[in-house]
Each structure stands twice: as structure tokens, then as C-alpha cells.
Here is the input.
Amino acid sequence: MKTRQHDSSVYEQVQSSERFQELKRRFRAWTFPMTVAFLVWYLLYVVLSGWARDFMGIKVLGNINVALIFGVLQFVSTFGIAWAYSRHAEKKLDPIADEIRHDIEGKSE
Here is the structure.
């Protein structure tokens, strides 16, 4: 039976490994800039809605105004980011995570 000390030492070894550090670096290199970009995009919408009402109220087509287009684009960008992250994870993160998991499972047998 495994002891708690054994489990924690495995996790400590994994966390200090180069492959895990590479996994964290790749995750952060994509996630942090994308998070900042999305927050800026979201806050732009909020700021324009509050302080540029005339601009946001410009009718583009019929009763469709700039604010409505920006609002719909918020949803589109959210789904786009989720799709892009899925592709990034599949190509750049999952192979390393699978390798790390395989190594851990091999050591625990």
C-alpha cells in the first residue's frame, strides 16, 4: 500500500522535472496573454458602453447598432478563444501531459 509520503514525493519530483516546467511554461505563454487580450476587449466594450454612448448607438443596419455588434462579438470571441485553446492544448500541452502521466504510472507500478 502506498503511503502519503510516497505520493507527495512523486508529485514533488514531477513538479521539479524539466518536462513539467516546460508544460507550465507553454500553458502560461498562451493563457496569460490571451487572458489579458480578452479582458482588454471586454473592458473596451464596457467602457464604450458607458462613455461613448453616441458611438455605440450608431445604427449600422436597420435597428442593429454598434453596441449590438460588439455584444455579439463578445460571444463570438469567447467561443473562438475556447476553440483556439483546445487546439493549442491538443498540440502543445496534451503530448507533454500524457508523457508525464505515463512516466508517473510507470514509476508507481
